[in-house]
């Protein structure tokens, strides 16, 4: 069982308020080493806000975020990323006219500026790192392809690769399968499981089939609060979760 002492990432009684609107009303979350935590919940539950607050993109009104025991509450996004928390957003943010390889090169830790990065000498260590990331995201064969030639799903994997290139200990993914085909969605689940061999991963997701594929522990948010957490089975059979979320998902899917 993960607790605040053993957690890599620990969120305590976190509150986020937007112009008087309480988006998070005191949320706790502990993420263990190499654990996958999946966050589900209805639209507006506060899922993205929670990830934003962790990485310093939403101002925390009260409560704390700890990374490896250090209080990182309201530190700058840049600082938090450098410490080891990588965040992928919903929309791809890649350089379409560059190759997959060069996109990953740009994302490597300690790299500054597009021109300088691409013109700088490619060391064996950097090349090895990029190849290992390409392998992780299933794009070894596409390393020299322009990102513009890739499918939507493959672009999302490049973005995940760009997060991995920064050597984070914790990877935060906001709806990584949005807009993907079923095959791409499944492949994304397998990529995430491989990432979790040596990273902690927090995933926001709506697709329950995908959640079942990757989930170890599920946290359910509702109206800015944690409704419950547990295994897939525990969450799926929880009457409160069925009422506020899963029932609605099943109706939407019908
Ligand atoms: N910058 C902001 N300013 C004002 N309100 C915001 C801001 N960001 C989020 N909110 C509000 O906070 C609430 C939580 O939003 P959030 O995006 O975290 O929900 P979510 O659970 O990720 O939903 P979805 O599944 O639709 O992405 C929503 O009511 C949203 O309108």
UniProtKB/TrEMBL annotation:
Residues 9-248 form the ABC transporter domain. Coiled coil: none annotated. Keywords: ATP-binding, Nucleotide-binding, Transport. InterPro entries: AAA+_ATPase, ABC_AA/LPS_Transport, ABC_transporter-like_ATP-bd, ABC_transptr_urea_ATP-bd_UrtD, BCA_ABC_TP_C, P-loop_NTPase. GO terms for cellular component: plasma membrane. GO terms for molecular function: ATP binding; ATP hydrolysis activity. Transmembrane segments: none annotated. PANTHER family: CONSERVED COMPONENT OF ABC TRANSPORTER FOR NATURAL AMINO ACIDS-RELATED (PTHR45772), HIGH-AFFINITY BRANCHED-CHAIN AMINO ACID TRANSPORT ATP-BINDING PROTEIN (PTHR45772:SF8). NCBIfam families: urea_trans_UrtD (TIGR03411). This is Urea ABC transporter ATP-binding protein UrtD. It comes from Chamaesiphon polymorphus CCALA 037. The lineage of its organism: Bacteria, Bacillati, Cyanobacteriota, Cyanophyceae, Gomontiellales.
């Amino acid at each position: 069982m993960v607790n605040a002492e053993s957690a890599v990432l620990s969120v305590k009684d976190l509150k986020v308020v937007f112009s008087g609107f309480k988006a998070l009303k005191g949320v706790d979350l502990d993420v263990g080493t190499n654990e996958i935590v999946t966050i589900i919940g209805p639209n507006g539950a506060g899922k993205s806000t929670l990830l934003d607050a962790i990485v310093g993109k939403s101002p925390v009104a009260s409560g704390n975020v700890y990374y490896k025991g250090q209080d990182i509450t309201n530190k700058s996004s840049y600082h938090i990323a450098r410490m080891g928390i990588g965040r992928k957003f919903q929309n791809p943010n890649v350089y379409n006219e560059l190759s997959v390889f060069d996109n990953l090169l740009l994302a490597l830790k300690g790299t500054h500026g597009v021109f300088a990065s691409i013109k700088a000498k490619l060391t064996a260590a950097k090349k090895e790192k990029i190849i290992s990331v390409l392998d992780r995201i299933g794009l070894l064969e596409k390393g020299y392809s322009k990102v513009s030639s890739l499918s939507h799903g493959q672009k999302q994997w490049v973005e995940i690769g760009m997060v991995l290139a920064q050597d984070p200990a914790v990877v935060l993914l906001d709806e990584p399968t949005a807009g993907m085909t079923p095959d791409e969605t499944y492949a994304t689940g397998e990529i995430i499981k491989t990432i979790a061999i040596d990273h902690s991963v927090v995933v926001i997701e709506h697709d329950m089939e995908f959640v079942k594929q990757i989930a170890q522990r599920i946290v359910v948010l509702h109206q800015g609060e944690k409704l419950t957490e547990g295994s897939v089975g525990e969450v799926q059979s929880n009457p409160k979760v069925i009422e506020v979320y899963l029932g609605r998902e099943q109706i939407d899917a019908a």
